[in-house]
Design a protein that fits this description.
This protein is α/β, with parallel strands linked by helices and 290 residues long. It contains 13 helices and 10 strands. The strands form 2 sheets. It has an 8-stranded parallel β-sheet with strand order 7-6-5-4-3-2-1-8. It has a two-stranded antiparallel sheet with strand order 9-10. A hairpin with a 2-residue loop joins β9 (256-258) and β10. α3 packs across α4 (72-82), α4 (72-82) packs parallel to α5 (95-112) and α12 (232-250) packs across α13 (265-285). The two termini are 14 Å apart.
Length: 290
């Protein structure tokens, strides 16, 4: 379960030093947009130290690499050797890029005796949106996510919630169609100052079935953690649904009522999934959040 992914610039010692204290389920060390061209090699060379530092709180660690012919493979190789759990791969247009990365990394991973890196392709242009399902079927894909600002720029549009809603939902549905995670809000993460709007957007995203979202400021992490975790009222209802199933089965009923609400197989499946999610949250937080 990954509710929150906090971006940290790969050259910011101040943010790196504090990242493990923020409570994010995952840290994304950014070598791409948050790093100026003249400092990209420096950020890459420090990855072993950076990954170790941000992992201290138990978070997963991803590295957002550069999709540039001169930087792509060296960035990925360095992230692999540094012990990252996965890669955020920007500007993915097709699954061939992921296959290229996987083939290059496989002998390094074998030599290190480490598990293969997971990939989170970032879909950032209109053409790639229509190929999102094929990209999601590519090798090692853990999740799909949209690059909101880039999508808007490619369309000559402003990154407003109305503009981003359709492309983000298309990418989200592609992720669900191929059985991978889906990260994101139906708005840009760049505007993080309005906490109420962010909380509402995170709750909306969870209602649509998104699994978590990224953020660029640590103050947003608790907002995401709360929104993407089930509340006690939801869990209590789910428990009543599962408990009522036993009586219904003994009576030969496939559908039944709980609290005046009709329950059949899809609702039962959602209740069981919700309880599993609640148990995962509880195990991650020692029972504080569930």
């Amino acid at each position: 379960m990954i509710r929150s992914l906090l971006y940290v610039p790969g050259t910011s010692e101040r943010f790196i030093a504090k990242a493990h204290e923020r409570g994010a389920d995952a840290i994304v060390v950014d070598l791409e947009d948050a790093v100026t061209p003249e400092r990209k090699v420096e950020a890459r060379d420090k990855l072993a130290e950076t990954v170790a530092a941000v992992r201290r709180g138990g978070a997963l660690v991803f590295v957002r690499i550069n999709n540039d012919p001169e930087l792509l493979l060296p960035d990925a190789q360095s992230a692999c050797r540094a012990g990252a759990d996965g890669l955020y791969v920007p500007k993915v247009g097709d699954a061939a890029l992921l296959a290229h990365l996987a083939a290059d990394l496989a002998p390094i991973e074998a030599a290190l005796g480490r598990r293969p890196l997971d990939f989170v392709p970032l879909i950032e242009d209109p053409g790639a949106i229509f190929d999102a399902r094929a990209i999601g079927r590519g090798p090692r894909v853990l999740a799909l996510s949209a690059g909101a600002e880039d999508i808007a720029t490619a369309m000559g549009a402003e990154p407003t919630p109305d503009v981003l809603r359709l492309p983000k939902l298309l990418i989200h549905m592609a992720a669900k169609a191929v059985g991978v995670l889906s990260f994101g809000l139906l708005r840009t993460v760049a505007d993080y100052g309005d906490r109420a709007a962010l909380a509402a957007a995170a709750r909306e995203a969870r209602q649509f079935g998104f699994d978590g979202a990224s953020c660029i400021h640590p103050s947003v992490v608790p907002v995401l953690n709360e929104a993407f975790a089930p509340g006690e009222a939801e869990l209590a209802f789910a428990r009543r649904v599962v408990d009522a199933q036993g009586d219904a089965r003994r009576d030969g009923r496939g559908a039944f009522l709980v609290d005046g609400r009709f329950v059949d197989a899809p609702i039962l499946a959602r209740a069981k999934r919700l309880l599993a999610l609640g148990a995962t949250v509880s195990s991650k937080t020692g029972g504080r959040d569930a």
